[in-house]
Amino acid sequence: STLRFVTTNSGKVQEAASYLDGLRRVEQLDYDYAELQSDDLAAIATHGAREAYRETDDDTPVIVDDAGLFVRGLSGFPGPYSAYVEDTLGIERVWELASDLDDRHAAFRCVVAYTDGDTVETFTGAVQGTMVAPRGDGGFGYDPIFEHDGTTFAEMPTDRKNALSHRGRALATFADWLAERAD
Ligand code: ITT
Ligand code: NA
């Protein structure tokens, strides 16, 4: 059966399709849902999934993901505001803020919200790392300033990043849940 991934990013759809191979066919729903203002990724993703399900006129289940970079020494900034901060300050300025810290620990977090119209389920994933001066030109967003095991996400081949990433971990947990339901 089919699952719709509500996103403007076709790369995410391919990533989800590989995790859900044999479980679901994944198609993109390129719909820019009204993002709830909240400091809680799960609340944002749940709201988006419900809204997208309502907007479509059949009962195909949908997933939405919401992700962000949480810098410990900046009290979790930019967190749920990561997209906005990337567009306004830019990642170089975020690195400048982090470079003044003694504690440069950061985590990417992701929540995938699934709804089939009846229930909503959420699945989370996180990856730990360190803020560094920009390196590498792969990936997107904050990848050049996030280092994991000595390598920035922008220096890694996409398949390696996806195997480690917050989104990959959330999708893997979701895939396990779907496999157990087996319907
Ligand atoms: P959609 O809402 O259309 O799916 P998005 O890119 O705006 O796409 P996300 O919730 O995935 O939404 O990400 C929010 C921001 O967090 C994103 O703009 C990036 O700045 C950052 N981000 C998320 N995942 C990232 C990753 O794997 N690498 C680097 N930055 C990431
Ligand atoms: Na619907």
Structure, explained:
The structure is a single chain. The protein is of the alpha/beta class. It has one domain (2-181): Maf protein. The chain contains 6 helices and 7 strands; from the N terminus they run βαβαβααββββαα. It has helices at residues 10-19, 41-55, 82-88, 91-99, 158-164, 166-181; strands spanning 2-6, 25-29, 62-71, 105-115, 120-131, 146-148, 151-152. The protein has a 7-stranded mixed sheet with strand order 2-1-3-4-5-6-7. A hairpin with a 2-residue loop joins β6 (146-148) and β7 (151-152). α5 crosses α6 (166-181). The chain is globular, with a radius of gyration of 16 Å. The protein starts with a strand and ends with a helix. The model has no long low-confidence stretch (mean pLDDT 95).
List the helices and strands in order: EHEHEHHEEEEHH
Q: What is the alpha-carbon Rg in Å?
A: 16 Å
What hetero molecules are in the model?
inosine 5'-triphosphate, sodium ion
> How are the strands of the largest sheet arranged?
2-1-3-4-5-6-7
Span of the ends, CA to CA = 9 Å
Give the gist of this structure.
By secondary structure, this protein is α/β, with parallel strands linked by helices. The chain is 35% helix and 26% strand.
List keywords for this structure.
single chain, 183 residues, seven-stranded mixed sheet, 6 helices, binds inosine 5'-triphosphate, binds sodium ion
Q: How is this fold's topology laid out?
A:
Elements: E1 2-6, H1 10-19, E2 25-29, H2 41-55, E3 62-71, H3 82-88, H4 91-99, E4 105-115, E5 120-131, E6 146-148, E7 151-152, H5 158-164, H6 166-181
Sodium ion binds at residues 53, 56, 58-59.
